[in-house]
């Protein structure tokens, strides 16, 4: 695909070890948790403290210290209107470092966002602005580096011509999924997503290992990654292009994307599979509710329409920032639109009835035995509707219902009745509410990507809303009256239950009801936390204060250190739970009493009081050599 913008080569210099061969741990558009990666992760030889150079002349318009995210980060604005960003830094250079520390003392806070005056901190191209580190949400030492345009859109830094990065290795296919996109779609005769593992041939092209058949509207999801010469890391793709029978149906180019749209990522991947397995399939079609302008598509938004019984050739071409590419070629054989259902004398096993929602469709599966024809009775607002199976899948009879037309509240198959817990059809882009006797949900106009078929079930002190495989665009507001009220509401909050773990959400009590916000669906539980945080000092000398803090339930909210009543800056590495002091004046020793207070998010506090002491350095013992 042709690039849309021009990129002046040589305007920026590489910010780490310029002029020397470098390699990356991440690139623009990599699929990360809840977001596209916004720049380059430049490797720093698995260590901290490498000089970080200004990529071009400019002034610092923002500097921040964060416990997560980018950690210590600098935003450098340049005369061309663009901005470069340098994240996970160990230390800022002086005089910037001294000014930031003074502001932290002035505001008495570790985490801080600062906006210096335009001419306050000016750097020339190639000047050292910081040392590389591992702060914030970094999983290892590296420099996070971005280039943004004047509208704060992310640009691909590799297009600016850095000779320090070389790449002649093409991308690699991992998995291709083909899925029905509406109630009439089928893949290999089933209303199921089918996953294939492409195989690379000797000529360098890729093929699928088995025949694919389909009918109706289907979509492709893809796991593929870029490779770079000399590294074992996996990177995001720059371009994806799909053709069917020689006609382009879909193209994707992540050359530039807006800062405000990173949350759209959750709608652009198969979020349900990512939540269940960790695998990140990128949708190779434009999903409903998409606002992300990265696509060029056919009339049906990049989906494939298989409307006959012929064989159709599909080509998927993936490429990286250096125009290295790989191509997957396979055929989709059209199936009859309405294949005859097998005739079974069957009896449904009442022990096995499963329901789920896919593509605006309620899918009900029931295992059967051969004795009489299976059928299902759907109950819709007090009315009964008897249905025969739409298809068979192995030993299961499958019943499909278009939820845009009707929303069954329960289904009876054989002697088994299963509730769907379907409550309401919630439309995106409007403010709406749903209320039950003991719980409610309020939606903002930005809460949803697409239509949500709201499912809800209250069980004692827990509330389940749909499942964690449904992505939200923004917060929803939930209220729950638990079955059993806690003894101490001030220490009781909402937690999201996930894989045996409880993640703190917070909330506020309104009488016997707790209100909370969430950007993720699933199961929410009322839990009390009355255990104070853990605090362990490893040094409390006149030179420095060091230690570890942690909390087993709600997590650390804040901490404060006072020496003789004077506030002292404590830096915090949340990954290790490590805290350490940084003096305003390094020449002045700490004197007197230290009071350290650590508070968790449930409001429990641990207060440690101790006298500061001189650090005694014990001489190392030398072992006598045996003669």
From TrEMBL:
<dbReference type="InterPro" id="IPR016047">
    <property type="entry name" value="M23ase_b-sheet_dom"/>
</dbReference>
<keyword id="KW-0732">Signal</keyword>
<feature type="domain" description="M23ase beta-sheet core">
    <location>
        <begin position="118"/>
        <end position="157"/>
    </location>
</feature>
<protein>
    <recommendedName>
        <fullName>M23ase beta-sheet core domain-containing protein</fullName>
    </recommendedName>
</protein>
<feature type="domain" description="M23ase beta-sheet core">
    <location>
        <begin position="36"/>
        <end position="93"/>
    </location>
</feature>
<dbReference type="Pfam" id="PF01551">
    <property type="entry name" value="Peptidase_M23"/>
</dbReference>
<dbReference type="InterPro" id="IPR050570">
    <property type="entry name" value="Cell_wall_metabolism_enzyme"/>
</dbReference>
<dbReference type="InterPro" id="IPR011055">
    <property type="entry name" value="Dup_hybrid_motif"/>
</dbReference>
């Amino acid at each position: 695909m042709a690039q849309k913008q021009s990129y002046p080569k040589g305007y920026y210099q590489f910010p780490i070890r310029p002029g020397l061969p470098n390699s990356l741990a991440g690139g623009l558009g990599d699929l990360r948790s809840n977001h596209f990666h916004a720049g380059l992760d430049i490797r720093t030889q698995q260590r901290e403290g490498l000089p970080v150079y200004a990529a071009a002349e400019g002034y610092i318009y923002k500097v921040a210290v964060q416990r997560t995210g980018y950690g210590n980060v600098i935003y450098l604005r340049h005369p061309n209107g663009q901005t470069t960003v340098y994240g996970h830094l160990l230390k800022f250079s002086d005089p910037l470092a001294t000014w930031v520390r003074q502001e932290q003392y002035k505001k008495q806070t570790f985490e801080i966002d600062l906006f210096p005056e335009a001419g306050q901190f000016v750097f020339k191209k190639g000047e050292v602005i910081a040392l590389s580190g591992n702060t914030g949400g970094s999983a290892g030492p590296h420099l996070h580096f971005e280039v943004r345009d004047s509208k704060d859109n992310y640009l691909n830094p590799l297009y600016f011509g850095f000779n320090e990065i070389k790449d002649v290795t093409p991308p690699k296919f991992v998995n291709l999924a083909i899925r029905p996109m509406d109630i009439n779609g089928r893949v290999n005769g089933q209303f199921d997503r089918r996953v294939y593992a492409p195989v690379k041939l000797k000529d360098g092209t890729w093929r699928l290992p088995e025949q694919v058949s389909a009918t109706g509207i289907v979509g492709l999801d893809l796991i593929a990654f870029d490779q770079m010469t000399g590294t074992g890391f996996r990177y995001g793709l720059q371009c994806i292009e799909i053709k069917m029978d020689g006609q382009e149906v879909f193209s994707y180019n992540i050359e530039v994307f807006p800062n405000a749209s990173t949350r759209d990522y959750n709608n652009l991947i198969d979020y349900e599979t990512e939540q269940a397995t960790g695998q990140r399939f990128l949708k190779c079609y434009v999903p409903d509710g998409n606002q992300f302008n990265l696509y060029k598509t056919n009339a049906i938004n990049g989906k494939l329409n298989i409307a006959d019984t012929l064989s159709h050739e599909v080509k998927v071409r993936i490429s990286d920032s250096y125009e290295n590419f790989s191509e997957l070629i396979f055929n989709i054989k059209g199936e009859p639109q309405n294949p005859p259902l097998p005739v079974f004398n069957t009896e449904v096993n009442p022990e096995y009835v499963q329901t789920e929602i896919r593509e605006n469709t309620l899918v009900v599966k029931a295992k059967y035995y051969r004795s009489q024809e299976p059928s299902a009775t759907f109950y819709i607002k007090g009315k009964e509707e008897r249905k025969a199976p739409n298809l068979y899948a192995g030993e299961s009879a499958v019943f499909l219902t278009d939820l845009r037309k009707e929303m069954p509240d329960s289904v009876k198959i054989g002697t088994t009745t299963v509730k769907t817990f379907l409550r309401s059809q919630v439309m995106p882009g409007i403010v709406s509410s749903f209320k039950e006797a003991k719980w409610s949900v309020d939606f903002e106009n930005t809460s949803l990507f697409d239509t949500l078929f709201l499912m809800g079930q209250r069980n004692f002190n827990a509330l389940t809303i749909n499942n964690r495989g449904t992505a939200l665009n923004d917060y929803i507001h939930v209220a729950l009256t638990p079955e059993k009220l806690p003894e101490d509401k001030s220490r009781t909050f909402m937690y999201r239950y996930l894989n045996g773990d409880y993640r703190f959400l917070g909330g506020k009590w309104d009488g016997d009801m707790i209100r909370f916000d969430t950007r993720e669906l699933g199961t929410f539980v009322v839990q009390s936390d009355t255990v104070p945080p853990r605090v362990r000092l490893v040094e409390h000398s006149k030179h420095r204060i060091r230690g570890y803090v942690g909390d087993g339930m709600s997590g650390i909210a804040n901490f404060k250190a006072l020496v003789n009543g004077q506030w002292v800056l404590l830096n915090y590495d949340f990954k290790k739970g490590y805290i350490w002091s940084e003096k305003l004046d390094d020449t002045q020793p700490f004197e007197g009493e230290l009071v350290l207070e650590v508070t968790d998010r449930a409001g429990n506090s641990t207060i440690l009081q101790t006298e500061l002491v001189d650090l005694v350095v014990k001489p190392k013992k030398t072992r006598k050599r045996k003669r």
